[in-house]
Amino acid sequence: MPELNRRLEQITDSVIGHMTALCDALPGSINLAQGCPEHDPPKAILDALVKEAAGGPQHQYAVLCGSPNLRRCIADKYSPLIGKALDPEEEVVVTCGGTEAMMAIMMAICNEGDKVIIFSPFYECYGTDAFLNGAEPIYVPLVPPAYEFDPAVLEDAFKQGGKAIVVCNPNNPSGKVFTREELLLIEELAAKYDAFVITDEPYEHIVYAPYEHVRAASLPGAYERTITCNSLSKTFSITGWRIGFVIAPPKIAEAIKLAHVFLTVGTASPLQEAACAGFSLGQEYYDELVADYAANREIICGGLDEIGLTYTLPKGGFFVMVDITPFLEKPMFKGWSDLQFCEWLVDEIGVGATPGSCFFAEPVNNLIRLQFASNAATLHEAIERFKRLKAYL
Ligand SMILES: Cc1ncc(COP(=O)(O)O)c(C=O)c1O
């Protein structure tokens, strides 16, 4: 057989996929490894989908860079939030989820040998997307438990030739919400070293008071170098619809459109039309969404408090990083990896978690990630099962 793409040999399979497969193989287990909202999507969107399904021109190819209606909705929503009148034709591209958006962005900006700065811990696809497009990741640690970065280390990464930086805000997996000051510094360094800022914001509406979401693209002078990568997956609880989008200045958006068109020829047309209905929802929808996730955070974190495990309280998103050091110090677990611990958790208590090491470039072995997007009953049951772990402490 002729040789396959050599770059793929260096990419390891998804650890989250592995943990999910273990949960799937064990009836009755609870998968807190993969974050998938158990909320129903807003009724307005589902009603609109029924109408779309009933027929009409939207069952054929969409306009390649996104339905004009959806791009108009996106431009109308984000113009005031970013503080710039966005042109839906020139500055918005609709993609197959945020996942494709990030790949299309990397395809649009990377040349062989380029370097892309990525904060560690990171969402799984950033380094892979950069690498598959010939670029080399430079990792800058967000140091647990506070997940802060050292400005000198960040500047050093730009000095090494970082052509772009990826900022996941709110951050998956750590729950960090970048402050205005941190984002100003990132934008200032990007301007100094002439780099792009790619900001991945699918959890923008899941930020817990008193913290607030600051859009990097809205900062003074930032728009021209900032590429916003986003998704409707979490905002409208429609992860299966695969609708993401990019907002970027026209020349950059043009390159992203080109990459997107050759990757997918466009996103599912009826779903794009139906998703427009979500943009008419008022502030009360977003308030309810974040209140629901805040209640879930309380169930999980309150449960961890009861058990006596330490964690970093997430400021945004629906993941929490839990410290498993107290277990790893016991003779029974001596020398175990976090992956072994997570595999054991599935067998022992029927709960799936993600080993933290898969999110870090540094050798971190004492953290596991739990998602709390499941419904309250599932999370309560997961905590009941975790309580059995006290016997091992
Ligand atoms: C940080 C982050 N970015 C992007 C995505 C991709 O989302 P989607 O492809 O469903 O839009 C996810 C999904 O979990 C995520 O956590």
Textual characterization of the structure:
By secondary structure, this protein is an alpha/beta fold. The protein folds into 2 domains: 6-41 and 283-392, Aspartate Aminotransferase, domain 1, CATH 3.90.1150; 60-280, Type I PLP-dependent aspartate aminotransferase-like (Major domain) (Aspartate Aminotransferase, domain 2, 3-Layer(aba) Sandwich). Helix content is 39%, strand content 14%. The chain has 13 helices and 13 strands. The protein has helices spanning 15-24, 43-53, 68-82, 97-109, 125-132, 151-159, 180-192, 250-264, 269-275, 283-307, 325-328, 338-349, 376-387; strands at 30-31, 92-95, 115-120, 136-141, 162-168, 196-200, 226-231, 244-247, 311-312, 319-323, 351-352, 354-355, 367-371. The strands form 3 sheets. The protein has a 7-stranded mixed β-sheet with strand order 2-8-7-6-5-3-4, sandwiched between helices. Strands 9-10-13-12 form a 4-stranded antiparallel β-sheet. Strand 5, helix 7 (180-192) and strand 6 form a beta-alpha-beta unit. Helix 4 runs parallel beside helix 5 and helix 4 (97-109) crosses helix 8 (250-264). The longest helix has 25 residues, at 283-307. The radius of gyration is 21 Å and the shape is globular. The termini are far apart. The mean pLDDT is 96. Pyridoxal-5'-phosphate binds at residues 35, 97-99, 123, 168, 172, 200, 202, 231, 233, 239, 244.
List keywords for this structure.
Aspartate Aminotransferase, domain 1, alpha/beta, binds pyridoxal-5'-phosphate, 2 domains, 393 residues, 39% helix, 7-stranded mixed sheet
